[in-house]
Amino acid sequence: MTQEGPALSVIIVNYNSGERLTRVFAALDRQTWRDFETLLVDNASSDDSASLAAEYPHLVTVKMSPVNTGFAGGVMIGAAMAKGEWLVVLNPDAYPESDWLEKLMAAAMEYGPETLLGSVQLTEDEEDRLDGLGDVYHMSGVAWRGGFGKSAALTPTEDREIFAPCFAAAALHRERFLSLGGLDEDFFCYHEDVDFGFRHRLAGGRAVLVHDAIVHHEGSGITGRYSDFTVFHGIRNRMWTFVKNTPLALMPVMLPAYLFFSAGFLLRSFMLGIGKPYMRGFAAGVKGLPRMLKKRGEVQKTRTAALGRIAGILNWSPIAPFRRAPDLRPISPPQP
Questions:
Q1: Which of 66, 85, 143, 327 has the fewest CB atoms nearer than 10 Å to its CB?
Q2: Can you tell me where the transmembrane regions are (predicted)?
């Protein structure tokens, strides 16, 4: 089949990102891989930051949304516009190295459309610190960016399998992404990448960390790591991810762990002074459960992966949620 359009479509969802966008555009303009388009979806920003794209008319196509659709909705708007065979999602506070797209494209050709591709994320302004080596999903329903805040010396020297990539800087095959429903727009933002990664896993997919595809990420540089907004959406969406995706056969083991860790994190949230947004997020999660249970029925119908394959990619260490270490595995063969 002849490929029409670019090989890659880079999607950036913007909401009041300010001058960060100029840095992102400049980094994309320096890419050694040139066969790509850049789509900026502006989520009703009030800072006029989308106008910065005018400095790069050869590079950026802008789509102005009249309302804030969240990260999930913005990615879906971009995916609908995209002409590339592969989608590359990039946060406006993530700055790629010049060969980033080249490394991702080489991995796409090696691993194929049923593999999600993640980037090595270094902490911006702290080159010796990791922002993340892919998403880890614990059997308790707790998810984290593997290695966040730890030494960059943990970066592997070869590609490794991960549960799922962080969508701050990830590549995925457009047709497969859309066939699995894309990102759940009810999530608005946070955890939507983990939710999609879980659905992708249930449908027999795998995920790989591309060890030499590198970005420098501020990490909640726009919303704030412990802001009420971040805490609310993180807690609510963690519940929804667990309910939608956990196979029924694993529930007797995973549900008690989910409740145990949720209680522990609730106590910790009050110690950190973020108890109120935590409680609001938990209450909103419970309120949305009927809708998520309906979605669960559809998600579980797509499952083709064996139960052992799903259980095997989860993290089962009782101390892992406290250490937040990366979980890097040898790359498994694709599902037959």
A1: 66
A2: 248-270
State the pTM of this model: 0.95
CA atoms lying within 13 Å on the CB side of residue 121: 27
Identify the residue whose tokens are 């066939």.
179
Element (H, E) at 316: none
Helix, strand, or coil (residue 39): strand
By the 8 A CB rule, do 37 and 8 touch?
yes
Among the listed residues 185, 4, 7, 171, the one whose alpha carbon sits nearest the alpha carbon of residue 96: 171
Residues of the chain with pLDDT under 50: 1-2, 221, 223
Name residue 210's amino acid: V
Q: Would you state the structure tokens that stand for residue 325, as one six-digit string? A: 């270490």
Residue 160: partners with Cβ closer than 8 Å, 6 or more residues away = 208, 209, 211, 328, 329, 330, 331
Residue whose tokens read 């989608």:
87
The strand pair at 94-96 and 206-217 is best described as antiparallel
Residues 314, 198: Cα–Cα separation, whole Å: 10
Backbone angles phi, psi at 192, to 5 degrees: -65, -30
Q: What distance in Å separates the CA atoms of residue 142 and residue 125, rounded to the nearest whole number? A: 28
Q: How many helices (H) and strands (E) does the chain have?
A: 11, 12
